[in-house]
Design goal:
The protein has 647 residues and is of the alpha/beta class. The strands form three sheets. It has a six-stranded mixed β-sheet with strand order 6-8-9-10-7-11. Strands 1-4-3-2-5 form a five-stranded mixed β-sheet, with helices on one face. Helix 9 links the parallel strand 8 and strand 9. Helix 1 runs antiparallel to helix 5, helix 17 crosses helix 22 and helix 20 packs across helix 21. The longest helix has 28 residues. It starts with 13 loop residues before the first helix and ends with a helix.
Length: 647
């Protein structure tokens, strides 16, 4: 066997081709009668000949270079052949002669004399400096730019340029843009930084264990799940959980957004999906995280006419094939996050692709307390700050909202030159986020101020007197954002809501409009937001939750994204409208009856609002007495506190 290497053919380099083209073009441009400009004819003459040409009327204009002591005399087109004595020069072609002079003063005297005699009537221009460089730039600049651009393009096509070989290069548009967090790289986010979400955190921790110790789960014949989908409202910590997985897992972690697959070029999205999974297989075991997967995983249309983006669908098809096709992706686990799981394609959600759906819901009162403890670590807070109180004051807040509250509180404390962040700063931050910035400078008449006070007092009174209405926290008639007044409540931490609870909330919401009609004799536009809320709530109760008297136990909810027809008849629509009207009218009359029975106390509360502009639950309790019902939120906090004390 001959082990000698076969002689390799010399590799052809395009650089030599570029050099040859440049030499040929330069020769052609310089060979035209010695003119570097390539657009005219010139020759050197003596100063005596120059004077003779001018006196004979051959000069059209003269360009003088005093620095070099030279000049250029441009010739009248009809006299070009008289000077150059050749037939190669075309009639009218631009031509000039060059010469040198000794004295600029004598030159000027000669030109003035010839102009007086009528032999020269052209312009005399002065040129300060050498024009040779500019002649070269104007002549060869475009050619050099074209050659350099062509060399750059060819290098990028061949992968020879480092900039072109990157993922953002024009010829690497099909490459995956996933950010790789290698197992040896340190990250600051771990599961300790994820507060609350105990169930979701447990499931993603198990995914990490699948990759660290797969034999533990496969020795009994089980299979490691291929994918998990994080589903939940915005700001609940889905991406943070994925970052914690990257910090805890001792495997490579590919992270990218669903929009990174979408591109204006046809076939780019599918190419990026293939490249992503190719890289993942090379580094298996590893984790792929796709944030906001609904950008590429939206349900495909059933009708061809509704298909608005074939490129997105081809990208989704390639993703489905890579996740569970004929090929194997052993050791590759896919994590994805979305807050719109209802619009995802059913083929994407089936078992074998995303085997698990991990729900990351809004935190309850105990989880909000844990989240506050995480975000309060870097703050200089007051020692008397009650974290339980902060958790109760932020119902419905996500983890991102709580982080924003802590940051706003620190900014407010710094604005007021405080040394620590206290309770008042956090309350002001919550008000700022919920209602907007205070507008104390907004001009209101006394009548408008009294109407707003009656309106907000109506909300506060009824919510205090009804069992299932949300407990009151604070009422204000100081304008915030677009609202002229506002009332803050403490919603119950409920898993399910009964019909009676919804009706009490609806009655409390209508209390403002009812108070206006009863105690001012007219109604205003200030209740528009209240009416919008109760109308949507009533339609939800009747059409979706089956709580109507004439349409009980029926749900007309339709999840068809491209459905343009209602899932019920016109007669049923009239019945739904009638029930909604009757329900809202009944609760409105109920609100007026409650306010009539407590008119004196309501008047005291409204007058207190006019005087102080802001009142709290203690003021309402002093007028109406204590509420006989215990808040479910308070029960949860009390049980949690007892567990901590026992532990």
């Amino acid at each position: 066997m001959d082990n000698k290497k076969k002689p390799t053919k010399p590799r052809f380099s395009l650089t030599w081709l570029y050099v040859c083209i440049a030499i040929i073009l330069g020769y052609l441009m310089f060979s035209r009668d010695g003119s570097a400009l390539g657009n005219g004819t010139s020759k050197e003459v003596s100063y005596t000949e120059f004077k003779q040409y001018v006196s004979q009327g051959y000069a059209s204009k003269i360009v003088v270079n005093k620095k070099e002591g030279s000049l250029e005399m441009f010739i009248q087109p009809e006299h070009v052949r008289d000077i150059f004595k050749t037939t190669n020069v075309q009639q009218g072609q631009q031509a000039f002669v060059k010469t040198e002079f000794l004295s600029a003063e004598k030159l000027q005297e000669f030109l003035d004399e010839q102009e007086a005699l009528g032999h020269f009537s052209g312009n005399v221009n002065n040129r300060n400096g050498d024009s040779g460089i500019w002649n070269f730039v104007w002549s060869f600049g475009p050619l050099i730019i074209i050659i350099l651009f062509w060399v750059l393009i060819m290098q990028r096509m061949s992968g020879g340029s480092s900039s072109g070989g990157g993922p953002m290069g024009i010829f690497n548009v099909g490459r995956s843009r996933a950010q790789l967090v290698d197992k040896d790289e340190a990250t600051k986010v771990t599961f300790k930084d994820v507060a609350g979400q105990a169930g979701a955190k447990q499931e993603v921790q198990e995914i990490v264990e699948f990759l660290k110790n797969p034999a533990k789960y496969t020795e009994l014949g089980g299979k490691i799940p291929k994918g998990a989908l994080l589903v939940g409202p915005p700001g609940t910590g889905k991406t943070l959980l994925a970052k914690a997985v990257a910090g805890e897992a001792d495997v490579p972690f590919f992270s990218m957004s669903g929009s990174d697959f979408v591109e204006m070029f046809v076939g780019v999205g599918a190419s990026r999906v293939r490249d992503l999974f190719r890289q993942a297989k090379e580094k298996a075991p590893c984790i792929i995280f796709i944030d906001e997967i609904d950008a590429v995983g939206r349900a495909r249309a059933n009708r061809a006419a509704m298909s608005s983006n074939d490129e997105r669908e081809s990208t989704l098809n390639q993703l489905l094939t890579e996740m569970d096709g004929f090929g194997t992706n052993s050791g590759v686990i896919i994590l994805a996050a979305t807050n719109r799981a209802d619009i995802l394609d059913k083929a994407l959600l089936r078992a074998g692709r995303f085997d698990r759906q991990i729900h990351v819901d809004l935190p309850d009162v105990n989880e909000r307390k844990e989240i506050f403890q995480v975000h309060l670590r870097p703050l200089k807070k007051d020692d008397t700050l009650d974290i339980d109180f902060l958790a109760r004051q932020t119902p419905g807040f996500s983890g991102a909202d709580i982080a924003n509250v802590c940051n706003e509180a620190a900014l407010i404390a710094a604005r007021n030159s405080k040394n620590a962040v206290g309770k008042d700063d956090f309350l002001a931050a919550v008000d700022r986020i919920i209602g907007g910035l205070e507008k104390k400078t907004k001009v209101m008449t006394d009548e408008e101020k009294r109407t707003i006070a009656l309106h907000e007092a109506g909300h506060a009174s009824i919510s205090w007197l009804l069992q299932y209405a949300n407990p009151l926290v604070k009422v204000t008639i100081v304008p915030r954002g677009r609202a002229l007044g506002a009332a803050w409540y403490l919603p119950e931490e409920r898993q399910i809501t009964t019909r009676e609870q919804m009706l009490d909330e609806m009655c409390a919401t209508l209390g403002g409009r009812a108070a206006e009609e009863l105690f001012t004799g007219h109604i205003s536009s200030g209740a528009m937001n209240d009416l919008e809320r109760v109308t949507k709530q009533a339609y939800g109760m009747i059409a979706y939750m089956g709580m109507g008297e004439q349409l009980p136990n029926l749900c007309y909810y339709n999840n068809d994204e491209y459905g343009f027809q209602k899932p019920y008849s016109e007669a049923t629509a009239e019945t739904i409208d009638g029930e909604v009207k009757a329900m809202i009218a009944q609760q409105y009359e109920r609100a007026k009856d409650i306010l009539k029975q407590n008119a004196d106390k309501h008047a005291q509360l409204a007058q207190l609002l006019v005087e102080r502009e802001v009142i709290f639950a203690d003021d309402v309790e002093r007028i109406f007495g204590p509420r006989p019902w215990t808040s479910r939120t308070e029960e949860l906090l009390e049980s949690k506190r007892e567990e901590e004390e026992n532990a």
